[in-house]
Write a structure and sequence with these properties.
By secondary structure, this protein is α/β, with parallel strands linked by helices. Helices cover 38% and strands 26% of the residues. It has 2 domains: 139 residues, P-loop containing nucleotide triphosphate hydrolases (Rossmann fold); 68 residues, no CATH class. It is built from 9 helices and 10 strands. α6 links the parallel β7 and β8. Belongs to the ABC transporter superfamily. Keywords: ATP-binding, Nucleotide-binding, Transport.
Length: 243
Amino acid sequence: MLRVENLTKKFKKVTAVDNVSFEVNPGEIIGLLGENGAGKTTTLRMLATMLKPTSGNAMIDGYNIIDNPNKIRERIGILFGGDVALYDRLTGRENMIYFAKLNGMSDLEADQAVNKITSELEMSDYIDRPVGKYSRGMKQKVSLARSIIHQPDVMLFDEPSTGLDVLSSKLIHDFILKCKKDNKAIVFSSHNMYETEKLCDRIIIIHKGKIVASGTIEQLKKDYQKDSLEDLFIECIGGMQDE
């Protein structure tokens, strides 16, 4: 389980994330929905221990992101849109083994995990070729694999389909749904209404660093008397534009 408590991040005079709190249960996908600059990525970077909060905290399996960053990193998988985070000179297999060992897996555990996920994602034809010779879709598959190779409890996806074609986007969506089926707690950020509605059990709408609405999409549509997620989103942030 992931629990976020009053998380805040300030950059000089700018408050990028303002007192954000939420929980994510195993087997649940929570969507962070907001405009560019709303605070989604900053929130995820704090959860990933890449940024230190100004105040507040978050807990994963009893460990908090401030005092136990190494324990947190063992328990999370991260996929940021547009960033495949692979070494071109290494093969796909070598990349995955490298990331597996970074997460404390033994040689045997790493080999077994790589073989399993290579089969699941149908990468056998190219997994032993240098990543620098891969297509974008191939790289994306390996990047997906390395993000979950150590079987983390929590997955963080930051606009993972940005810049991808339809087939590559579907691969991402199917992978996220597989993570849910495998009982991962998932936080998914996006400004894409279609994929948010397709994937998320609940959404959190963020505007200027603050949560302005949260709940299931259907309940929020009912509460705000809107027929579409797009109209709901505009309603939630529209009244706050001039503040």
